[in-house]
């Protein structure tokens, strides 16, 4: 019997909607239960099993120095890394600050903006580490995500309506 695929699902700056798309897969996800070991899934559980992971799904954009260190650690310990959703693939709605004065935004919203420890920009995961595949959407299609996981389990290239940016 082959070892289950070690799956980790990560959250950066995001609304959790793409993780919910996976949770909402319901019965289809249950069908994969024996073939997949969920080592980490931020939306479903706070527990985490250390890497290496076979597949890391990354939701959210990179917005702090800590994020940069964390995404590098995830990349170093993941055989495949898939960025899921507009936040992870393009910086998300929070990237609006990239073309404005992020400090002015913070001052308008927070009574003490000086305590914020955020970067001036919100950037996609691919700006910081190599990404094997990007799934577009806001949120992503749960059917497309399950196709990616199923394809990995059977050792074939996923069949997606949009050609993946990079998938070996
Ligand atoms: Fe939420 Fe959209 Fe970002 Fe997914 S891409 S985490 S649904 S804002």
Topology at a glance:
Blueprint: E1 5-11, H1 17-23, H2 27-31, E2 36-41, E3 53-59, H3 65-76, E4 78-84, H4 85-90, H5 102-109, E5 133-135, H6 142-153
Parallel strand pairs: 1-2, 1-3, 3-4, 4-5
Bound molecules: iron/sulfur cluster (SF4).
Iron/sulfur cluster is lined by residues 14-15, 17-18, 59, 85-87, 92, 138-139.
Biggest beta sheet attributes: 5 strands, parallel
Order of helices and strands, N to C? EHHEEHEHHEH
The overall strand count is: 5
Quickly give the structural class: alpha/beta
Could you please say which CATH topology applies here? Rossmann fold
Fill in the keyword field for this structure.
single chain; 168 residues; alpha/beta; Rossmann fold; five-stranded parallel β-sheet; binds iron/sulfur cluster; membrane
In short:
This is Coenzyme F420-reducing hydrogenase, gamma subunit. Helix content is 30%, strand content 18%.
Describe the fold and architecture.
There is one protein chain. By secondary structure, the protein is an alpha/beta fold. The protein contains six helices and five strands; from the N terminus they run βααββαβααβα. The chain has one domain (5-153): 3-Layer(aba) Sandwich (Rossmann fold), CATH 3.40.50. The protein has helices at residues 17-23, 27-31, 65-76, 85-90, 102-109, 142-153; strands spanning 5-11, 36-41, 53-59, 78-84, 133-135. The protein has a five-stranded parallel sheet, sandwiched between helices. The protein is elongated, with a radius of gyration of 17 Å. Mean pLDDT is 89; it is low at 164-168. Iron/sulfur cluster is lined by residues 14-15, 17-18, 59, 85-87, 92, 138-139. Residues 14-15, 17-18, 59, 85-87, 92, 138-139 line the site of iron/sulfur cluster (SF4). Keywords: 3Fe-4S, Cell membrane, Iron, Iron-sulfur, Membrane, Metal-binding, Oxidoreductase.
